[in-house]
Amino acid sequence: MSVYEFKAETINGKEILLSEYEGKVLLIVNTASKCGFTSQLEGLQKLYDTYNQQGLEILGFPCNQFNSQDPGSNEEIAEFCQLNYGVTFPMFSKVDVKGKNAHPLFNYLTEEAKGLLTKQIKWNFTKFLVGKDGQVIDRFAPQTKPEELEKAIQDALK
Predict the structure, then answer these.
(1) How many Cα atoms sit within 13 Å of 63 on the Cβ side?
(2) Model-level pTM?
(3) Whole-number pLDDT of residue 116
(4) What stretches of 2-135 adopt beta strand conformation (E)?
(5) Is 35 annotated in the active site?
């Protein structure tokens, strides 16, 4: 199994197969617009600007499960991310990342890369690095700043 076996809806409502990203390195992040870590969108965009041409895709999945920190509509979230942080990497429709309604992609990611104390995602901006083969390489905590991922991304792109 790999991430390429899943599908997701873009923030604009178009369903896509993640196999469209086959052969790319992916950084999959559950985002939120009103979180203490929201400024990481800027760092994620910098990573995208630096490494996209080399094969990195960043996939943002808004989530409202942690203290209701992303209450807006998909349209409001897209506008917020673009206007405030210049986000141009792919954003997807708001999803649950834990619990009985969790998106199947996040069930897979958390099975493949369990957290420190639990496999469940504990907060916004948990990051999953996925190799070109669609396999999960590593999981990074919300506190891990995007710039701290550079070495891991460079290694995955080789």
Answers:
(1) 25
(2) 0.95
(3) 59
(4) 7-9, 15-17, 25-31, 56-62, 127-130
(5) yes
**Block mean pLDDT (10 aa), the chain, length 158:** 96 97 98 94 98 98 95 95 96 96 96 74 96 96 97 98
Looking at 8, 11, 35, 156, which residue is catalytic? 35
Measure Cα distances from 65 to 45, 62, 78 in Å: 23, 9, 18
Can you name the residues that pair with 58 across neighbouring β-strands?
27
Q: Domain of 12: which CATH number? A: 3.40.30.10
User: Domain range holding 21?
Assistant: 3-157
Give the pair of three-digit tokens for residue 104.
């199947």
Q: Name the residue type at position 115.
A: G
Q: For residue 7, how many other CB atoms are within 10 A of its CB?
A: 14
Rounded to an integer, what is the distance from CA 39 to the centroid of its chain? Answer: 14
